[in-house]
Design a protein that fits this description.
The protein has helices spanning 53-58, 60-64, 101-113, 203-211, 249-261, and strands spanning 18-19, 30-38, 41-47, 74-81, 84-91, 121-124, 131-137, 144-150, 172-176, 179-187, 191-195, 221-229, 232-239, 243-244, 270-275, 278-283, 292-306. It is mainly beta and 307 residues long.
Length: 307
């Protein structure tokens, strides 16, 4: 969808569209935002150059409400730290994940579109450390781009995920809902547990139970994966604080890592991870190397909410 434009030249926000939206319990305020999506995983981007981040962070759950607010899987706060662009993520329930793979592609596109950076390759700081992003627009001034992100190196260390275990958790059985589910645990700066078990409709209820499993100190994102070939995986992800989403970038990376570490896929080859919203290309390198994630990001519209 192309960006909507305001015809009111006196509008101090310039290109931002003003939308009067009723948001529950949101105090009187004007908040400029941009809406982006990556494979259907949608976000409200609030940029410190145009809006006050404190209020956006405080009222993120109301802003994310799909019937009473703007509607999104999360809010992405964009500012700078030591001269570098920074992304902070707020889930729809107000919780703070360390990282968001689809979100960082959206932020990278936002920074290129709004000239928040020079060039098309740059690092974005996150709570999981800096990530190098390379943005390829579909055309000059395009609202759509293909973004490659050098994600952080994955870890299987249970202390860093964290998960209650003596060593790496790979295809280990977890007791949940009176059944055993084999999971593999990976951190991409945030915790993931992936199962390749064929669970069918049971996955619809097991996501929330596994997210809060007693062995996860801070919860986990839960991936339900199925190998199509050694280079192609179907994946659904139950995200902490959100539920099932159309796509999860860190989840796709963690899934590819789990597939490699359990011998289901090969290291160093491009693996297509097919999510409900579409595919991501993931390359898992040698242990200690960063994972490469490539996928789309799209600008949907700009707006300003007045509550």
């Amino acid at each position: 969808m192309r960006s909507a434009k305001t015809a009111d030249s006196s509008d101090a926000l310039g290109r931002h569209v003003r939308a009067a939206l009723a948001v529950v319990d949101l105090p009187t305020m004007s908040l400029a935002f941009s809406k982006y999506e990556g494979l259907g995983n949608d976000f409200i981007v609030v940029d410190a150059r145009y809006a006050e981040l404190t209020r956006a962070e405080k009222y993120a759950p109301q802003l994310c409400q799909r019937h009473l607010g703007i509607g999104a899987d999360g809010v992405l706060l964009v500012d700078t730290v030591q001269g570098r662009p920074r992304m902070r993520v707020i889930n729809a329930d107000g919780s703070r994940p360390e990282m968001c793979g689809n979100g960082i592609r959206c932020v990278a596109l936002h920074l290129v579109r709004t000239s928040g950076v020079s060039g098309t390759s740059f690092a974005v700081e996150t709570d999981a450390g800096p990530h190098l992003c390379s943005v390829e627009l579909e055309g000059p001034g395009s609202a759509v781009a293909r973004v490659e992100v050098s994600m952080r190196a994955p870890t299987l260390d249970p202390r860093l995920i964290p998960v209650d275990a003596e060593g790496p958790v790979l295809d280990q059985p977890f007791d949940v809902a009176q059944r055993k589910v084999r999971v593999s645990c990976v951190s991409m700066g945030n915790p993931h547990a992936i199962t390749f078990d064929e669970l069918g409709e049971a996955s619809d209820t097991l996501g929330s139970l596994l997210e809060k499993h007693i062995r996860f100190e801070r919860g986990a994102n839960i991936g339900f994966a199925r190998m199509r070939t050694e280079d192609s995986i179907d994946l659904r992800v139950w995200e902490r604080g959100v539920g099932f989403t159309q796509a999860c970038g860190t989840g796709a990376c963690a899934c590819a890592v789990a597939a490699v570490e359990t011998g289901r896929a090969q290291r160093g080859r491009s693996i297509e991870v097919r999510l409900p919203g579409g595919p991501l290309q993931i390359v898992v390198g040698e242990p200690g190397q960063r994972v490469l994630m490539t996928g789309p990001a799209s600008h949907v519209f700009d707006g300003a909410i007045e509550g």
